[in-house]
Amino acid sequence: SEFLAQILKREGSLVGNEKVYVSCEEGARKSTGTLYDKVRAHLNPTHWEHYGDHPISDVKQAREKGIIATQINTAFTESEKTLPDYSKRHSYELSCLAGLQRAARIANGNNAYSALAADFVAPAYIPYVQFVLEKAKEQGLKRLYFLSRDSYILQKIAECKQSEFPDIELRYLFVSRKALLLPYLQEPTAAKFLAVQDKQTLVGKYVEGLLSSLATSSVELKEKFATEFEYNRITNKQQEEDFLNKIFGEKSNFRNHLKKTATEKRELLNAYFTQEGLFDDCEKAMVDVGWLGTTRLMINSILREEEQKDTHFFYYGVRGDVLDNSHGIFYNYFTPQELSTALTTMVENYFSASPYPSTTGYRVENGRVVPTFKEGESVKSNRIIDTNIAVCTYIAGEIPHTATQKTDMLRTWCKCATETMLTLKHSDIDLSPLCNAETFDGKPFVKILSTKELFNIMLLGGRCTAFDKASIKLTTGRLFGPVWKICRITGKIRRFLYLRFKAK
Fold first, then answer.
1. Which terminal CB of the chain, N or C, has fewer other CB atoms within 10 Å?
2. Listed range (156-165, 192-201, 286-295, 457-466) with the worst mean pLDDT
3. Nearest one of 102, 131, 94 to 119, comparing CA atoms
């Protein structure tokens, strides 16, 4: 009791000379109720409330003694308990990190939101930020730009480590593929437009979506430029060539208008880049999440045309067909084989939740260039964003005090968390907060599935949400294991039939 009293006073839980009762000293136990009897005989309380984590000792026995009892869950989650076993080499350090995850989770409400943030978001992103800062220092980089929107939380984590890297300046940059496309097309050509398309093709894309990215529409093209398309979606190379000729060809009625618009957008972007120091003579790099590199291509293309040096890029993950170093040097934390599509949607939708909407362009306001957002959208936060940032910054701030910043150990921590999220192997992972994430490509990110949707995924391989595996787990609960096994079996059957049919 004397030792425990010192700890309780240090933590502010014991403010006077209150007596501390310990079972071994009193010769009585909570589990039998005898310790409660001893305390009552000594203190004779008129009102008694008891808080504890054991359902028998702290709740059942207390209530039988007429005490108001509340159970407190401060136990480790399954993810936290199994973390030290993931690597024998780093077992001690991982146990320290598991303790930090638990502490951050409890300090931030001990709920489903803080559990996801502590057990998955923090270990996924803190090691990446450490990698970025160490690599930047090694390369002599003096400034890092964290790209809107996905890198907002990455900057918040980096700010917690600023004292360890005082020579590296951290800035936030409002850019997006949409905001960069027209400035990049100041000299509009079909080749440049194709270069920033996924897989360098327009086949499979909708005409209206492509025109929207060029700040026009089929109605405007018809009325102002006498240009029409006989198709809504490009389904073959002939239609692709027709589209490119009507927009970028020498006989295009629209090309001069596009060039004028792009030039105006380029002037605004150059003013924003100048204002934010991108044209400064200092070694700099961009920090992004990934995956293909079109933002890198466009930014470095613009910098080269303005006779500026390339900027380096950092990526959390990349695709197998990532654009090569000819568009600017990049460093990736994960290789293409290490991250599945399911995790990339999780990273973009949940891990990187940001208060900022996507940047659509720029305008001048009170002598400064500021970003513009889609009409009706504004800067706003929510529970996911607030919790992710609070938990990640808590853990990032505490890690230096635990001597656990070895690069290979942090990477092990990261890989354990990402693999656990992908497999969803622990039964106590509460996925309900994922239902509140933003939609992804027009689909709900995660939701409770209807019976029809569940069977569509299980038997036909349909896609109902961006992260179907999580939706299945949330819907089926304890039956998730058998249901997911059925999904895998039917998937193998469909693949076998497809390959056999294709061969014929």
1. C
2. 457-466
3. 102
Mean local confidence (pLDDT), 380-403: 92
Q: Does an H or E element contain 248, and which?
A: helix 237-248
Q: Where are the alpha helices (DSSP H) in 226-350?
A: 237-248, 255-275, 294-305, 341-346
Q: Which two tokens stand for residue 210?
A: 């492509």
Strand 312-315: give its sheet, edge to edge.
Answer: 169-173, 143-147, 284-287, 312-315, 330-332
The answer to whether the Cα torsion of 423, 429, 431, 437 is positive or negative is negative
Predicted confidence at residue 67, as pLDDT, reads: 95
What 8-state DSSP symbol labels residue 332?
A: E
**Is 255 in contact with 224 (CB distance < 8 Å)?**
no
Token output for 253:
């009625």
pLDDT at 404 over 70: no
pTM summary value: 0.87
Q: What is the pLDDT of residues 333-375, one digit of tens each?
A: 998 878 877 788 888 889 999 999 999 999 999 999 999 998 8
CA 227 to chain centre: 41
Cβ pair 271, 369 in contact under 8 A: yes
Residue 135 is which amino acid? K
Radius of gyration of the chain (CA): 28
User: If pLDDT is split at 50, 70 and 90, which confidence band does 403 have?
Assistant: low
Tokens of 305: 């045309």
C-alpha to C-alpha distance for 382 and 397, rounded to whole angstroms: 22
Inter-residue contact 109 to 387 (CB < 8 Å): yes
- DSSP reduced 3-state for 440: strand
Nearby residues of 255 by Cβ (< 8 Å), 6 or more positions away: 188, 247, 248, 249
Q: Say how far apart CA 500 and CA 73 lie, in whole Å.
A: 53
Q: Which residues contact 453 (CB under 8 A, 6 or more apart)?
A: 462, 464
Average model confidence (pLDDT) across the chain? 92
In whole angstroms, give the CA distance from residue 401 to residue 404.
Answer: 8
